[in-house]
Design a protein that fits this description.
It comes from Aquimarina mytili. The protein is an alpha/beta fold and 258 residues long. Helix content is 43%, strand content 14%. It contains 8 helices and 8 strands. Strand 1, helix 1 and strand 2 form a beta-alpha-beta unit. The longest helix is centred in the middle third of the chain and has 23 residues. The radius of gyration is 22 Å and the shape is globular. The termini are far apart. About 5% of the residues have low confidence.
Length: 258
């Protein structure tokens, strides 16, 4: 019996594609793909650290695009961003299935369990993306940057860049993922990915809040607006919780002191 080979990567999408490259280039028969920070105690396995090489990642993605539609490519990426445990291996199985298909792009076969799973997960990630686009609230810093923090269930920041870049093209803004410790920053020209620890949790000089009085006035404005549109006689708590889950409330200005 051949031992399983555990391929460890840096957590990036390119790193994951490089794992797929390794599977094919080394003809690995029993691969398991995991992020390098995930512990494992499986016996009778071989562990390999996969280096992220842009050229190898591009080769895999180029081959994948030749076999798939735009929708399949988007769903593949969204499923990866879900960060659900084991999703890398589901995506690997799907890739192997795709590469075995005929050259002509075929309709999505939902009888395939991996395809069905990927599409289900992609829909979950898409819903989270829409929630983020709806629930992000900005506050102005002393440096003239509109900042917002959130902790989405899935890693959806890459998916919301275009929405906020188009909607707030004339403002500098920063959206920071508290859970994953990175953010996206728009400087009026391009969107950069930034990382710094505990930016909203400590008294950090990098981000200077606007004066307290101005910030309180800003929050009062949102609270007043929310109360005026929230007609008590039409209150539907079940529907409200469905569309604005409680995990988002601490990041919504209008939910403070309500």
């Amino acid at each position: 019996m051949n031992p399983q080979t555990i391929l460890l990567y840096d957590g990036s999408f390119d790193g994951f594609l490089c794992c797929i490259f390794e599977v094919y280039s080394k003809k690995i028969t029993a691969p398991i793909i995991r992020k390098e920070d995930q512990t494992h105690n499986q016996l009778f396995t071989i562990t390999e650290q996969v280096q992220t090489l842009e050229n190898n990642a591009q080769r895999v993605w180029k081959a994948f695009k030749k076999k798939t539609t735009k929708t399949e490519q988007n769903n593949f990426f969204k499923a990866f961003l879900s960060e659900i445990k084991g999703v890398e291996n589901t995506l690997l199985n799907y890739t192997q299935y795709i590469f075995k298909k005929a050259n002509d792009k075929q309709h999505i076969d939902f009888s395939n369990k991996d395809i069905l799973k990927i599409n289900q997960v992609a829909r979950m990630v898409e819903r989270e993306k829409h929630r983020m686009e709806a629930f992000v609230r900005f506050q102005l810093t002393q440096d003239g940057i509109y900042t917002s923090s959130a902790a989405p269930d899935f890693n959806v920041l890459p998916l919301i860049i275009h929405h906020f870049k188009d909607r707030y093209a004339d403002q500098k803004w920063l959206i920071y993922d508290m859970r994953r410790k990175y953010g996206i920053y728009y400087n009026l020209k391009i969107v950069d990915v930034i990382t710094f620890e505990n930016v909203f949790e400590i008294n950090n000089q990098t981000i200077k809040r606007k004066s307290l009085d101005e910030e309180i006035d800003f929050q009062k404005l949102w609270t007043a607006y929310y109360k005026n549109v929230n007609i008590k006689s039409r209150k539907n708590s079940k529907l409200h919780h469905q569309h604005i889950p409680k995990r988002y409330w601490k990041y919504l200005t209008e939910k403070n002191n309500i």
